[in-house]
Amino acid sequence: MLSWFLRLESLLTRLALVIAVVMLIISVSLGFFQVLTRFIFNAPSTWSEVISRSTMIWCVFMGAAATFRGGYMMAVELVYKLVPRRTLLALEIVIGACCLLVLGVLVVYGIQMTLRVRSQMLSGLGMSIAWSYAAIPTGSAFAMVAVIARLVSQGLGLEKLGPENSNLSPEVDADGVQQASPALAEGEASHSSVNGGDRP
User: How far apart are CA 186 and CA 200, in angstroms?
Assistant: First the structure.
């Protein structure tokens, strides 16, 4: 069941990332087109700026899913250094719960805002502004799935604890020997079993 959920989350996060990249390309291209029409041809486009702004909103919210999943959100590394490594999982759970709370609020109120403004139109396009607001609940929902998947993977020891690219020192036992993280130890064990154990 968990493996099925992780595979589903991987597909959803990749889809969200693809959408974010496509929206970014559209936004940058239309921004360049807007500059050309305004300063080169002296005939500013009335629709490109609106679409560029809307696609950038979609890019930010859809890209948040991959950011949460990879653990690339801004982290206060000092907190991780002060907390004993044995309690890092509890800290990750607390952080994940806070993220889920905020994202849940964005989903609920984002849906309400989208429904409230559906009668308003984007200037120069004649389409509902709700298409722009829909990025808030949609991207937040994708990000919630990503946060849950990250917590599950960390709980199972499939991913390391703490922020990515951190300088956290490995755990040291009573004899002063550095201990590898559970995920790293499991990875080394599986690598050793695949290669048939230690070889001279």
Answer: 22
Which among 169, 148, 156 has a CA at the least distance from the CA of 95? Answer: 148
Asked if residue 92 belongs to a domain, the reply is: yes
Residue type, 163: P
Q: Residue 152: what are its φ and ψ, rounded to 5°?
A: -65, -45
Please give the average per-residue pLDDT across 12-16, as a whole number: 95
Write out the two tokens for 89. 């999982």
Q: Decide if 167 is inside a domain.
A: no
Q: Please give the residue that has the higher pLDDT: either 93 or 191.
A: 93
Domain that holds residue 76: 6-160+174-194
State the pTM of this model.
0.76
* Residue 188 counted as domain residue: yes
Of residues 107, 96, 100, 101, the one with CA closest to residue 138: 107
Count Cβ atoms below 10 Å from residue 23 Cβ, excluding itself: 22
